[in-house]
Each structure stands twice: as structure tokens, then as C-alpha cells.
Amino acid sequence: MSTALETVGFFLGAISWLITGAALANDYWKISTVSGSVIISNRQYENLWHSCAEDSTGVATAETFESLLALPGYIQACRALMICIKIGSAGDETKAKMAVGGGVALPPGRSICAIVTASWYAARVVNDFYNPLYGITRFELGAGLYMCWAGGCLALLGGAMLFAPAREPHLEPKAPSPHTAPRAPVMVPTAHSG
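^ Claudin, sequence as received from the core. Prediction below:
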């Protein structure tokens, strides 16, 4: 059972890495909304790296954010959290320790960073959407955020599956505890003929 859990945990971790990487490259972290608009001539969308606009003919232009320091603090922090995501034959004991280490490192390394990034970015989009003093263009949550949340959740689940086998009791013989008094042999009387 533990090998199956470790294998599923590994594959969930790999899939989450792919989904989170795709979310990082996805252009649609926030998309301009159409609510309240009479005529829509273009659509705007952004991610952590650039801002794009697409006109009614489907021609898109993108502008890369030029200065890191000119960006709002939450985008700088989201970039830092997403860049922290890293790609992560011995005896059975070493393999078990590596699986536990992977199970402990996977959630903070990938899932927590991805979930915090997507949630923070989404909170800012929602806050700006309902802010009456925000500019003319209002933005909604884009597919990139949902991909980021999905990747983070899969990494969390995969990490839990890698960590779970270490918590299972092993069926190895136990050594006597040094705090337990040794048992005296039981003497059974025997009959002697004589």
C-alpha cells in the first residue's frame, strides 16, 4: 500500500508542477470584464509578467512590465513566490526518508507558494473590481489563477500521499523496552518416579 501511495503522490506532484508551470506562463490571470459595457472594442488581460490588449479583430499586443520596482508590491511578492517553485537508488530506509522529506518539502515548496500567490492576486483583482475609485477598466479572475490553485492543491495532496506511508506502523519485531522488568521463568512442577 505504501508503494502505491508514494507512486500516486509522486505523479500528483509531477502533474502539479506541470499545471503550476503552465499557470505561470498563462496570460489570463486577470481579464477585463464586460459587465456594464455597451460596446466592447477590445479586451485587456494581464499576468505577472506583462499586460496585453486584444482588439475586435483578434490582434493582440502585449507590453512587458519594464521595471520591477515600478510594479505594485503584491505583484513583486507574487513573482517571488512563483519563482521559488523548484524541481525536486538507495536502500529502503533512505528511500523512505527521501519520501518523507519530499512529502514535507512539497507542500511548502509548491502548494503553499502557488495557493498564496493565486489567492493574493485574486484578492487584489476582486478588491479593485469593487473599488469605486479604480480606473475605467475592471478586471475579473482569469484561467491562470484557477490553474495555479489547481496545481497548488494537487501538490498538497501529492505531498500528503508521500508523507502518509511514513506514518504507517511497521511490522518489525520490537526490541524489549529497557524500562520493562524482565519476566521470571515459570516453574512447572514435574512428577519424578523414584
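Strands lie at 30-32, 42-46, 50-55, 60-64, 139-141.
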